[in-house]
Amino acid sequence: MLTVLAYILLAALPLALLAFFSGSLLGFAAEKFKVEGNPIADQVNNLLPQTQCGQCGFPGCKPYAEAIANGEKINRCPPGGQSTIDAIANLLGVEAEPLDAEHGVEKAVPMVAYIREDECIGCTKCIQACPVDAILGAAKQMHTVISSECTGCDLCVEPCPVDCIEMRPVETTTSTWIWQPPASTTLIASDKDKPNAAH
Amino acid sequence: MTEFLLILVSTVLVNNFVLVQFLGLCPFMGVSNKLETAIGMGAATTFVLTLASVCSYLVYTYLLLPFDLAYLKTISFIMVIAVVVGFTELVIRKTSPLLYRVLGIFLPLITVNCAVLGVALLNVKRNHSFAESVFYGFGAAAGFSLVMVLFAAMRERIAIADIPKPFQGASIAMLSAGLMALAFMGFTGLVSI
Q1: pTM of this prediction?
Q2: Rg for chain B, CA atoms, rounded
Q3: CA-nearest residue of chain A to B58?
């Protein structure tokens, strides 16, 4: 009985030793050769609008953010528009440039796709084009857009064979309305400019 | 020296791992669609196979044999290969991002490449010395890469050729792989060890 146990132990010990050594080596390597994600790319990615529309020529916002971190131009994001370009320029400390018209133009108001459902033939082409899966439907079934998911990237308009998709401005409801700050602040009376005024 | 040259010629051409011994067939069929990926896979496999061959030799000679545990060689070799692959991946990712971009996705695939385990086991079976193990591993990997690159180049041409409908896709790939194996049989008798 004892000899059998000893025999098993003798087999298990070298294997355990090998496993322990391998595990330590891998653990040590994981610590020693740790790769931090590119912090600049992550920060740029946070500023991008996450429409994943690919109008910049990259397959999504994250790849474009990585490309920017590697020196790509910052003015290729139409959905983000000038405000995004300014924010990225501010982050990277470079000159803000106007939006590159080659990649699209900035829309004045946020748009959302709308499918005229009685014209839809159910070809699923727009579903395949949608980068954020905001179109619901199946083959030979009517499709519709989930408005709250739609980023207004335009990519579904072009593939539609019957042209039943249009871009509509987002309707202002009480939940989407944003307070517009007053345009000018010409006050009738103020002591702002007086040097000794109490603030 | 001629002995090592013989091992190389034997493993690359005569006893080619893929086409004669039929080891490592899944990457051979799976990643040979494009020449670029085939080259990447070949390079990654060459690196790992040579290293794994050395490591498994060391483990077998200095850990398993002294304890009289030769029957545990398969499980130990699998562990050694997995560790070598994991370690290589970590080191490459840190030291050379460019190389990692080329080899990155192929490295984990190599863990389950049976050619790697095959080389380690054959080294033991044939009582190879340390240097012989190194050359045997490297030769096997070189043969694997050679066949991968040749096959990928062929498949790229096949992709644009006018193929009868029943032969399209996987079947023509299988057929051409079989023809290639036939061609490699022509090397039999070139050298014998």
Answers
A1: 0.59
A2: 17
A3: A18
